[in-house]
Amino acid sequence: MSDVLAERCAALAQPVVDLMAAAIECQTGNPETFDRVIALAGQVRTVAEQGADGISQPDYSAWATGAPAVLTAMERAAERRDAKGVWTAFADPQVGLHRVGTACQGYPRW
């Protein structure tokens, strides 16, 4: 039997790290970075939209449920070149990317 959480964490490791870097870097106002945020949010969304079936880890379940909305907010902020909005979505206290980080803690590359 496969470990669904391990598979999701493996798929998310690099896109989440890259999205974190882009969310921080876009605070400088570099227009290319906003485009990277949009692309990377899409990569993370692809995994998030697979849901949390077969995963009992509560942080992952909470994150996967809210991730599509928060990623949309991040993309829309990036489209407006709104650095504060990008960071606000990234760091959302309920479903921000820290939740998936907590869920994946201990897995390779986390």
Question: Care to describe what's here?
Answer:
This protein is mainly alpha-helical and 110 residues long. It has one domain. Helices cover 71% and strands 0% of the residues. It has 5 helices and no strands. The protein has helices at 4-25, 31-48, 58-79, 83-90, 97-104. It is elongated.
Layout of helices and strands, plus pairs?
Layout: H1 4-25, H2 31-48, H3 58-79, H4 83-90, H5 97-104
Helix pairs in contact: 1-2, 1-5, 2-3, 3-4, 3-5
Q: What fraction of residues sit in β-strands?
A: under 5%
Number of helices: 5
What is the typical, i.e. mean, pLDDT?
95
String of helices and strands: HHHHH
- Rg of Cα set: 13 Å
Structural class: mainly alpha
β-strand number: 0
Question: Could you name the key traits of this structure?
Answer:
110 residues; mainly alpha; 5 helices; elongated
Task: Summarize the entry for a quick read.
The protein is mainly α and 110 residues long. It contains 5 helices and no strands.
